C-alpha cells in the first residue's frame, strides 16, 4: 500500500498546466516563461511519479477524500505513466520549439503583428490542452474522461485555427464538429454503461461488464466515438487538412499527442473493461481497419505535393499499426499487448513531432513546403535534414528504434499464430513508409544549379535542436526497452477500488 | 418503467435526428443546432436513467450531476462553435469579395 501523502503528487500534472494556462491568459508578457516553467515542472513530476510507482506500485488519489462509487479518483499505472512521460517530453520539446518559431516569425516585420497575436493565444491554449491530456491519462472515471475529451477538443480546435488562413479555419471548424460528434457518441456510450452497471469507475467496471444488450451497445458507441477522434480509416478524412494547415508547433501537438489520447482510452476500454465480452471477429475487424489505414495513409502520403500534408497522411498510416495489434493480442499475453502499443505510440510521438518540426523549419526557410522544390535544403540546414532522416528511420521501424521492437513482437505473434497476412501488412507498411520518406529525402539532397542559395536564413538553435533530440530519442528507444517493459507491467488490478466497493466511507 | 423507456426512446430519437441533420445540412448554424439537439437527447436519456435504481421513489443523484456538467460543457462548446462559424463565414465573404474585384489592384480595395 502506498503512503497517502505521495498520492497527492498525482494531481500535479493536471494542476501545473492549468494554473500556467490561466496565468498566461492574465499576463501579456512572460507567457513563455510561465509555460516553460509548467512544462519543466510537469516533466519532473512525471519522473518522480514513475519513481514512486516503481517503489510502491500503482497508486490512486481520491479527490476530496471521496471514494470510488461516488467520488472521482485519479490513478497511475504503468501505461498511464508512460503516456504521461510521452506527453511531458514531447511537450517540453514543443514548448522550446514554439518559442524559436514565434521569435523567428516576429523578426519578419510584415507579419509581426499577426504573429504576436498568434503567440498571445498559443501559450494559454497549449497549456489548457496539456491539462486535458494529462487529465485524460490520469482519470479513472468514465464521465470525467468525457470532460477531459471535451477539454482537449475545445483547446485543440482553436489551436488548429491559429494560423488564420481560410483553409485552416474551415479545417479546424470541421475538426471541432467532428470532435463534438465523437464526444457525444462517447457520452451516449457512457450513459448505456452506467445504466447497465451503475458505476463510473474504470476499475469497478472491470469486474462488472458481462453479456447484455446495454453493454454491447455501450461498447459500439464508445468505440465509434473514439475511432472518430483517433482518425482510424475510414473516419480519418478530417485529420490531414486540420493537421497540415495548422502552425508547425500546433501540428506537432495535434499529431503526436492528441490522437494518441483517444486511442489510449479506446485501448483501455477494449482490453480492460470489455475484455470478457470481445469476440475474435471484432478484434479482426479492428485489425482489418488498421491494415486499411496503413496502406491508404501510405499511398496518400506518397501522392502528396506538400511536405506537411505528406507528414499528416503518414500519421493516418502509422495509427493503423496501433490497431493491427488488436487481432494479434489473442496470441500474446496481456502485458505484451500494452508494451507493443506503448512502443508504437512513443516512437511515433517522438518521430512525428520531429518530422513536423522539420517541415516547419523548411517552411520558415523557404517560405513554402512544395516537395518538388526542396532543392539545396541539405546544404543550408544540415541539422534539420539529419533530424528528418533519423525520424524517417524510426517511422520505417529499422532496428534500434522503438517501432522495431513493437513490429518484431507483432511479426512473431503473427507467425506463431500462422496468420501470415498480418506479417505482410506490417512489412508492407514499412516498405511504403520507406518510399514516402525517401522520396522527400532525395529532393533535400539535390544541389541547385547556378546560385548557391537564394536566402541565407540562419535558424536559431531552438528550432534546430528539439527535432534532432526527439528523433534521436525515437531511434534509441529500442535500446532502453527493458526498462520501458518493466514500467508497462505495473497494472492497476482493480483491487484498490474493490476495497471501497462495499459502501461509502 | 414504461415512462422511463418512453423518455429514453425520445432521447435516442433526438440523438439520431441531430446526427442526421449534422450530416445532411451544410449551413453552419444548422450544424451547431444539430449538435445541441444531439446533446439534449443524451441528457434526456441520462435524466430518465436517474429513475431506475433501488426501491420505489428513489432517485439516483449521479446522472443529475452528469447532466449539469454536460450542460455546462455543451454551452461553452456551442459558444466556441458559433465563433468559429462566424469566422468561417467572414472569411468566405472576404474570398468572394476578392474574386469579384480581382481585376482591381490591392490598394483600391482597401484590403
SSE blueprint and pairings:
The complex is a heterodimer of chains A (505) and B (111).
Chain A: H1 4-7, H2 12-26, H3 31-56, E1 59-62, E2 73-76, H4 78-106, H5 112-138, H6 142-161, H7 166-197, H8 202-206, H9 213-230, H10 239-244, H11 248-273, H12 280-303, H13 307-328, H14 334-366, H15 377-380, H16 382-396, H17 402-416, H18 420-445, H19 461-476, H20 481-488, H21 495-499
Antiparallel strand pairs in A: 1-2
Helix pairs in contact in A: 2-3, 2-5, 3-4, 3-5, 4-5, 4-11, 4-14, 4-19, 4-20, 5-6, 5-11, 6-7, 6-11, 7-9, 9-11, 11-14, 12-13, 12-18, 13-14, 13-18, 14-16, 14-17, 14-19, 16-18, 16-19, 17-18
Chain B: H1 2-24, H2 28-49, H3 61-100, H4 106-109
What does this structure look like?
The complex is a heterodimer of chains A (505) and B (111). Chain A has helices at 4-7, 12-26, 31-56, 78-106, 112-138, 142-161, 166-197, 202-206, 213-230, 239-244, 248-273, 280-303, 307-328, 334-366, 377-380, 382-396, 402-416, 420-445, 461-476, 481-488, 495-499, and strands at residues 59-62, 73-76. In chain A, helix 4 (78-106) runs antiparallel to helix 11 (248-273). Chain A is globular, with a radius of gyration of 22 Å. Chain A starts with a helix and ends in a 6-residue tail after the last helix. Chain A has a two-stranded antiparallel ribbon with strand order 1-2. Residues 496-505 of chain A have low confidence and may be disordered. Chain A has a domain at 279-489. Chain A contains 21 helices and two strands. With 505 residues, chain A is mainly α. In chain B, 80% of the residues lie in helices and 0% in strands. Residues 106-111 of chain B have low confidence and may be disordered. With 111 residues, chain B is mainly α. Chain B has a single domain (2-109), classed as Helix Hairpins (Orthogonal Bundle). Chain B has helices at 2-24, 28-49, 61-100, 106-109. Chain B is built from four helices and no strands. The chains are: A mainly alpha (505), B mainly alpha (111). At the A-B interface, helix 6 and helix 7 of A face helix 1, helix 2 and helix 3 of B.
